[in-house]
Design goal:
With 1236 residues, the protein is α/β, with parallel strands linked by helices. The chain has a six-stranded mixed beta sheet with strand order 7-8-9-5-10-11, with helices on both faces. The chain has a six-stranded mixed beta sheet with strand order 17-20-21-14-22-23. A hairpin with an 8-residue loop joins strand 3 and strand 4. The longest helix is centred in the N-terminal third of the chain and has 51 residues. It is elongated, with a radius of gyration of 37 Å. The N terminus is likely disordered. It is a multi-pass membrane protein.
Length: 1236
Amino acid sequence: FSVNAWPTSKEAIYQRTQRKCNPEKNASFFSRMTYSWFSRVIVLGYKKPLEREDLCELHESDSSYIVCPIFEKQWRKEVLRTQERQEVKASFPKETHARKPSLVYALWNTFKFVLIQVALFKVFADILSFTSPLIMKQMIIFCEHRPDFGWSGYGYALALFVVVFLQTLILQQYQRFNMLTSAKIKTAVIGLIYKKALLLSNVSRKRFSTGEITNLMSADAQQLMDLTANLSLLWSAPFQILMAISLLWQELGPAVLAGVAVLVFVIPVNAFVATRVKKLKKSQTKNKDKQIKLLNEILHGIKILKLYAWESSYQKKIIEIREQELEVQKSAGYLAVFSMLTLTCIPFLVSLATFGIYFLLDEGNILTATKVFTSMSLFNILRLPLFDLPVVISAVVQTRVSLDRLEDFLNTEELHPQNIETNYIGDHAIGFTNASFSWDKTGVPVLKNLNIKIPEGALVAVVGPVGSGKSSVLSAILGEMEKLTGVVQRKGSVAYVAQQAWIQNCILQENILFGSIMQKQFYERVLEACALLPDLEQLPNGDQTEIGERGVNISGGQKHRVSLARAVYSGADIYLLDDPFAAVDVHVGKQLFEKVIGSSGILKNKTRVLVTHNLTLLPEMDLIVVMESGRVAHMGTYHELLSKTRNLTNFMPSHPEIILKYLQAFGWLWVWLSVAAYLGQNLVGVAQNLWLSAWVKEAKHMNEFTEWKQIRSNKLNIYGLLGLMQGLFVCSGAYILTRGSLTASRTLHTQLLDNVLHLPLRFFETNPIGQIINRFTKDMFIIDIRFHYYLRNWVNCTLDVIGTVLVIGGALPLFILGVIPLMFLYLTIQRYYVASSRQIRRLAGASRSPIISHFSETLTGVSTIRAFGHEQRFIQQNKEVVNENLVCFYNNVISNRWLSVRLEFLGNLMVFFAALLAVLAGKSIDSAIVGLSISYALNITQSLNFWVRKACEIETNAVSIERVCEYENMDKEAPWIMSKRPPSQWPEKGIVEFINYQARYRDDLGLALRDITFQTHGEEKIGIVGRTGAGKSTLSNCLFRIVERSGGKIIIDGIDISTIGLHDLRGRLNIIPQDPVLFSGTLQMNLDPLDKYSDRELWEVLELCHLKDFVQSLPKKLLHEISEGGENLSVGQRQLVCLARALLRKTKILILDEATASIDFETDTLVQTTIRKEFSDCTILTIAHRLHSIIDSDRVLVLDSGRITEFETPQNLICQKGLFFEMLTEAGITQNLVTK
């Protein structure tokens, strides 16, 4: 066991990174069996915080790089076998049941040899567990007869030590292989889920939301892993039960059948519980899916919630779902109370029934020490399989639900390669012939009878009003839609720029390279062409700046330009560009067209298909395709289309403290009641065994001619009464624990949600969403299900250990002298282990978040990934993040085995001491006391090991409570409501005044706004302009206090906005934000989540924003279900819904933040007219890239580098010929047009 048993090892290349070889490779047999080779990590973790580099690497065969491909191969074989069987069954009309490919068969074929190896270890460990009671029996016989020569007694003591030590070594090998195999199964399943997610058809993506797919990976794959870890109990538990019963038969004869009858009676009870648990599991899974889905949307749309002051409304929605979860959890808890009662009472009832029948069969039957304590040891062994069997049966039932969900997902429809011919060789780059498409096979065609031929190297514009099918044309070219009829052909590789830019959570350079090799000269050329060089100067670390999740720390325009740069750098043959100019300034858009897309740009010789709203670009096009209601309305060159219609624009697009915190949430009343219940349970348990011991001593002096029959009956009655009392204490303890744990779960979840919603927006911009969701899923799962279970077991075990030591110490006082140094060693080992284990668990926790983040990121950008053909690269990245987690799990498993071997060895020494002292005591000790002491000693090995393990698990799992509570101490936004509240009609005039205002996004960043001073008049229309990064959106963020002041103040109608609550402020302002964010739910809920307005008012605003006809055409109208992220509406329609919100919420001040960037010019004009009419009596601040929209403003505020450079009427600014005039000139807006 020496910590120096660490073998030297050579450095080796492991997959793609240089890693150390696993030290176990070169370790000796003894070191492997005792895990001494891992001592270096344990000692290192005690001395300093462990880092990833300190951990041992996986064996190559255990890595995700090896496991995933092998399993995928078996899954493909299973799919093919199923298809072949279906083809055979198709010839038999009576065969109607179609069997899906089985995940279980594929897993068995992949892991069957290692599972058999695990089973063999378990068999040997089980056999050895039954050897100990038989040796104890011989020791009791030895003590009863006490021969003069006592060497046989020492032999028995030594044999007992050897057997329990061998059992320890074999059991720990079983645990090690068992846990690692279960982890490999989880890894394999995650790999398959990830690969499937990249291949899903649009129909399948509608069926499974991002939250549901993430839940499959996190919860269902975990459930499968948990079951695998306990799977051997399905056969091991019955095997142990049969072994115990057969040995009990030898002791008590046919009387043991009474105990078997009790066991048989319990089986239907467990079956009933398992059925109920299955139903509850299904219900709980649905609730968890709903919560994750809503949380995912809330966190991704958190800015909208804050701008509209909707946090409280969505907080209630989450809490409603959470209450449903807790109701299910309560039902499951009460079932657990019932299970706990039956499981605790089973050993007692079995022994009571067996002893009772034993007496009834023959009045001369006497319970000797040999019979009682051998039987009690066997009953103790029987307790574990009796406890485990129903649990594992229940787990099988629950996992069946997870398996069904996984198989349902894995067997869903994939994108059909036949949707598009990619191996086409011909004249044109892209061709549609009589092609119709829908989002699913049975759906209504979205695109109808397309006949388009796009020559190689052509520049093509796809235009049309909002919802006409422009973006769908690009999806059809990508093969993302279901082809109903016709032919689609595509030649060469593809690069895609989505309408909503998809940005990865990595450095900016990696976002652009996207897996390609760095070519410095071309890279610099791409940066310059995509107008990114000025942005790199502003970013803290240039192109090495870490970009937050979904690109939260860069502007909308920067996101689109990074997305375009990624496409350009890829060097593809075909470029599909979905409105890349929507979120950039006019002059930037002009540069992008000239230097990237146009006839003199980098892509001049490539095939380019551009969805655009920009009318001025159309004369530059080789071909224009005008879409209308899913059909090609017109097609030709600019001049051909111009000759067909006078108005071309008609076609244009529209720890201790932590544990204390948990106990406070639990409730101190429930805590003390729980302790009292478990103390009572353990005291009664000790009393039962002491009663049996006294009974045996008395029985030795009785014979059949005394009143023994009456005494025996009384003894049995009292034994039965003690058992019933124990059952009552167990039941009470389980019930109290369920009530307290529910209270703790509710309190901690509510606090977590409240803390998260009160965090400032900058937190969400700098922290991965996956990490926050992890708090609500993984960490809350541990708090809900596991932590109170560990706490209960630790308390119970602590009392059990104390009781055991006191009983043995009372019988053999010298035993206490042996226990003291052993306890010191126990605590030393625990201290070393806990220090390292906590850090390994933290590393494992940190390695889980990247899996979820990478998965969510992939699901968001799946169209882009598929378009670029980078599926394999992302699959490899997934293997890498999963493998990192697997390395941490492996080290955690080995650290547990290292601990178990050492603790059980010390426990084995205690058994040896107890046996040795019994032999040394000679005739001075009764055989009944010997039996009691050794049976308790045999139990203490398991109890002490269990005690230390649960103490460690409590400490390591307390990390989850720490994570859930960590948001408490973070800087929060100002209170939603403060004691000072504005008048109900505020603001009445709409006068906004900035006085020497300064603001920065974070303390470590420079000022985003500098010395801003200006004042609006009531009902004035102010246009706010400036180049990208000038501070336009920051100005609106400051009005809503999304960004707090660094100096100065903002006064609205005489009230300093820093003196009132955020909801009082944000609820009285109105905004149409830059990004059109919608949430899943009904259209009505998206318009009016607070349910404040009537249907009539909703229809009125829909008409005003030109959505009424569209909504009336929907089957469910206002109750039309919006999919996750509003994906079933076009971006333009989503923007119009945001306009409708503003019209509904009408207040005295309106901020338009680039609100019409995603709609066509015609709709833009209608919207602007509506805004001018409906908000004529309001102050309007318009932030726009399209200078047409602010040209008729009363005054224009021009920003540059966070400062006001100009603030005058448009006409005066034109006369001054400053920055505003320069921007107008770049946009092609003449002075004559302005004057008009």
